[in-house]
Amino acid sequence: MSEQFDVIVIGAGPAGYHAAIRAAQLGMKVACVDAALGKDGKPALGGTCLRVGCIPSKALLDSSRQYWNMGHLFGDHGISFKDAKIDVGAMVGRKDKIVKQFTGGIAMLFKANKVAPYYGFATLHPDRVVKVKQHDDSEVELKATNVILAAGSDSIELPFAKFDGETVVDNVGALDFAEVPKRLCVIGAGVIGLELGSVWRRLGAEVTVLEALPEFLAAADAEMAKVAAKEFRKQGLDIRLGAKVGKTEVRKKGKKAEVEVTYEDKDGEQTATFDRLLVAVGRKPASKGLLADGTGVKLDDRGRIEVDEHCHTGVDGVWAIGDCVRGPMLAHKGFEEGIAVAELIAGLPGHVNLDTVPWVIYTEPEIAWVGRTERQLKEDEVPYKVGTFPFAALGRAVAMGEPAGMVKVIAHAETDRVLGLHLVGANVSELVHEGVLTMEFNGSADDLARICHAHPTMSEAIHDAAMALDKRAIHKTN
Q1: Annotated binding-site residue? 331
Q2: Where does NAD(+) bind (predicted)?
């Protein structure tokens, strides 16, 4: 006989665990099913984000940044040292310790909120029955009034570059290299490729990034992408645009292996050899095996679960959130969807505004934005005006030795309502939320310009950019 719950959540990633905890807070009987195991072979909650995505990558980014600064920034501060070295094993061990701390933290939150965890692979059957094949091959059957599908996403594997976990890897493998590769090739100049490429470049690898598209970071504002690309090339990232990879071949070289990559660019077919290959061409919904026949839940042509604006699938009591539905594959978008759906189930208002979800790339400098780009506004024939301000003219940025980058505020030409905030620079992941907040409250560029910003801070760049929009910036020539 099936155990009955008010809510069953399939997936304990960012979207799933938020949904489960919020539903429990609202007085519902909740179960959450997750199949992931940690490096120790034990269940590890938190999804891709906590285990092999957001958190571990940021740990390595911070470690590599410290090492890079020793050789490239500390001298300007009058700090000298001899023979700086990186212990890759210790760096990866620190990352693993942080991951274990946070995955264990989710388990503690489940216990505190009385969320029942089940460990194994879940499949939704008709009438909201969930069958879980546990890791010992036993099966349990659960039933719920509401089921929330939060299965997450998987790395996309190219047919000519199959993952072997050693020479050809996805982001998971690139987090666990035992040593700094001499030559690293990255296919894809997106978030994952740039972040992990930056990690290993800072530690001494020769990094070549092959991007099939003819322009860099097409999703970002074109001016910001240009600024960022210039900084990355200064750091030694070899970014090749319009480079379409068509073949890879792994060859043994003594006890080690190397991979030959064949690609085509404006100069014709090219071949290069590397020690490691990171394939970072995006992610796909992890919907395979999630749905049994007859559930009524539909998938689109990209494998995403079809939902309405409230994340409902159209099947009574079945919802879907996070990476397995439309919208950006971002942890914080999943956070908000999980909370919104739990509150909708409880009869409360629940809503996520996909137009104000911030994007961040945690490179050095960081890239962040919210809202629309100039290109999008031009295509939609929306009248707009722009204000910019460079970090090089900002006292705090120069004092920190972080003058690279700029801020751009875009507002409607007639109403002055903020339509977008785009940033490249140090710590802009923290600054982008000024734009999120302003846009959520339908604020204007003048609102940003009239808010007092502390001096000296990095946030002053937003204030000055907003003032520049109407040619009244104090610290730059308009």
Answers
A1: yes
A2: 188-195, 211, 282
3-class secondary structure, 259 = strand
CA of residue 354 relative to chain centroid, distance? 15
**How many CA atoms within 13 Å lie on the side-chain side of 80?**
1
Q: What is the CATH number of domain 168-281?
A: 3.50.50.60
Q: Does 321 belong to an annotated binding site? A: no
**In the predicted model, what is the mean pLDDT of residues 398-404?**
96
pLDDT mean over 447-465: 97
CB atoms closer than 10 angstroms to residue 158: 15
Residue 29 buriedness (CB in 10 A; 0-12 / 13-18 / 19+): middle
Q: Where are the domains of the chain?
A: 3-154+284-355, 168-281, 365-468
Backbone φ/ψ region at 156: left (φ over 0), alpha (ψ -120 to 50), beta: beta
Tell me if 374 is assigned to a ligand binding site: no
269 is in an annotated binding site: no
Q: Give the DSSP letter of residue 2.
A: P
Sheet containing strand 366-371, strands side by side: 359-361, 366-371, 418-425, 406-412, 384-390
149 with 27: CB under 8 angstroms?
Answer: no
Cα angle vertex 119, ends 116, 124, to 5°? Answer: 85
Whole-model pTM?
A: 0.96
The angle subtended at Cα 329 by Cα 291 and Cα 103, nearest 5°, is 80
Q: How far apart are CA 388 and CA 304, in angstroms?
A: 38
Strands 359-361, 366-371: pairing is antiparallel
**Partners of residue 125 on adjacent β-strands:** 129
The class that CATH gives domain 3-154+284-355 is: alpha beta
- Tokens 């501060």 label which residue? 77
Q: Is the dihedral of CA 100, 282, 228, 466 positive or negative?
A: negative
Which helix (H) or strand (E) segment holds residue 331: the answer is: helix 331-345
Instruction: Kindly list the catalytic residues.
Output: 455
pLDDT digits (tens, 9 = 90+) for 51-73: 999 999 999 999 999 999 999 99
Annotated binding residue 58: yes
Between CA 435 and CA 449 the distance in angstroms is: 12
* Dihedral angle sign, alpha carbons of residues 340, 341, 342, 348: positive
Q: E-strand spans in 415-470?
A: 418-425
242 labelled as ligand-binding?
A: no
Residue 398: CB atoms within 10 A of its CB come to 13
Please tell me if the domain spanning 3-154+284-355 has the same topology as the one spanning 365-468.
no
What is the per-residue pLDDT for 478?
65
User: Annotation-wise, does 210 bind a ligand?
Assistant: no
User: How many whole angstroms separate alpha carbon 477 and alpha carbon 277?
Assistant: 46
Token pair for residue 326? 């439309």
Residue 228, judged by CB atoms within 10 A of its CB (0-12, 13-18, 19+), counts as buried
Query: What class, spelled out in words, does domain 365-468 have in CATH?
Result: alpha beta
